[in-house]
Specification:
The complex is a heterodimer of chains A (111) and B (510). Chain A is mainly alpha-helical and 111 residues long. Helix content of chain A is 50%, strand content 9%. A two-stranded antiparallel sheet of chain A has the order 1-2. Chain B has 3 domains: 144 residues, Fumarate Reductase Iron-sulfur Protein, Chain B, domain 2; 166 residues, no CATH class; 135 residues. Chain B has 23 helices and 7 strands. Chain B has a 4-stranded parallel sheet with strand order 2-1-3-4. A 3-stranded parallel sheet of chain B has the order 5-6-7, with helices on both faces. In chain B, α2 crosses α3, α2 packs antiparallel against α9 and α17 crosses α19. Classes of the chains: A mainly alpha (111), B mainly alpha (510). The interface between A and B is medium-sized, with 23 and 40 residues.
Chain lengths: 111, 510
Amino acid sequence: MASIEVNGKSYETDEEGYLVNLSEWNPEVADYIAGTESIQMTDQHWEVINFLREYFDEYQIAPAVRVLTKAIGKKLGADKGNSEYLYGLFPYGPGKQACKIAGLPKPTGCV
Amino acid sequence: MAEVTAPAYRTIPIIPKLIPGAMEGKGPYIANEKIQADLGFPGQLVDDWHDKAIAKMGDLLRKYRSVAVFMDACVHCGACSDKCHYFIGTADPKNMPVARQDLMRSVYRRYFTWAGKLFPKLVGARDLTREVLDEWYNYYHQCSECRRCSVFCPYGIDTAEITMAAREILAEVGMGQKYSNEIIAKVHKIGNNLGLPGPALKDTMEGLEEDVKEDTGIDVRFPIDVKGAEVLLITPSADFFAEPHIDSLIGYAKVFHATGTSWTLSSMSSEAANFGMFIGNYEQLRKVALRIRQAALDLGVKRIVVGECGHAWRVAYSFWNTLSGVGDGSDPDDKFARMLQQQLDHRYRQPTHICEFTWDMIERGALSFNKEANDKYVVSFHDSCNVARGSRMGDLPGGQFEIPRNIIRAVANNFVEMDPGTTRESTFCCGGGGGLLTDDLMELRVKGALPRMEALKQVSDEKGVNFLALICAICKTQFSKVAPYYGFDRKMMGGVHQLVSNAIILGDKQ
């Protein structure tokens, strides 16, 4: 198994860099994973990450892209409630890249 | 974007100059012990892998006469060699279909023919070594089982079946593929590829009801687990989750609404995809299919309609009948298949593709459209490989080609075809089919999309095509992901029922 080291502590990940033990996640780990994805975390990024984690706590799955865009739109204004905004923050695709940083499992299937 | 670069467009689409070893490597991630155990496969390469693999190959040669014939029939004429999108995109000679077949054929000759047993070198026979096994894993995960090569083979050799057999042998000795096997285990456990639990599905569908109400002012419903509904919709779970997929789901719901059809999703069985086919394993294929039968029996539906998903429609159209009793042909002793047979309404095709459903309704005059709503688009249509070469729609041969096009023409004013060498039965795979739609195969996916991107580029330059209509969740995800490498906007990619959704007139008929 692969692992990453953040502030002297080791965290187990899968082959693709997703955390194996979701309960180990913390903001420093998120920052570290974002760095490996060449993303500099900003408040805008955190808005998305926090929503993903809240949704996951309730439903044990990441939200659909549409659910995410709608929630962000409600919170930050309609001009940000669209997938362009999210792709701007997470260029590899909000579904997978944001989940990875949020410490959620990778969405699987034809997505 | 990842550091993959798209190959250059070819000025004249000729056979590429060979680059031996271009795609050598380890292949996609191997399934770990837990994933393998979930499907009843060994967790890692077993000690007696050699004997087990040869024994399994012997089993498959007996069980599938097709594979045995394909091993013997090839005369190396070369007709298939430049027909594979992965060969065209990667130029690796081992991605020529004949070479891919020969990876197994050489082993077959060594162990199953007298000439290969006695004079292996003379007949190109080779031992199954660990290197050969690794080579199988790598190159049998560079075939999307799209069957384009089989169209051009004078003997009809179907490389997809050989790939499936190879993958079945590999899983059996402990080398399963992570992507496909993890997904199959999720279907067994939760009911869909995503692992989307019932409450999340419900929340997402309620959100869609709000959205459609906001857009149209009409209460279009997205029902779940409604007993006694007429139609059970079985659609890829990507339709609940991803873009542009979800826009087609909205399209199906609007069609059901406008035609007054009572329908339901099932939270227990919320997946059309059946990756059991991709890994070539009949037991997994059947187990996934039986979930759908259980949902149909529990809900008491009269019809089963399948959403936009390519390989799912091949499984549904070609295999559901004997697997599960949706359609004729089940085992007479299969009690539940008989039960389902009696329950379903046989005035309709069982199963029905959503395109058949919509087209029937259009022909009957039950739907009206504002085609101008799609006037911003010049639309072309990409035939999905499994629909084109593994199934049919409607009552006429070639219905699987005509019906989606008929729908597009009914809902949009501007439709043009791509190069006929790349459509209908000659269609190219999107580059992500057959269990290869995974991030660890991104280089292969980008390169494999080359022939389709070339055909799209041509109609985009010459005829202004700015929307590629699709009927497969894999095609939608794959093109949205890789088209930007070729300079296209991911938003050009969408579903046929997304166009239907844009144009359909809801509410009272004028």
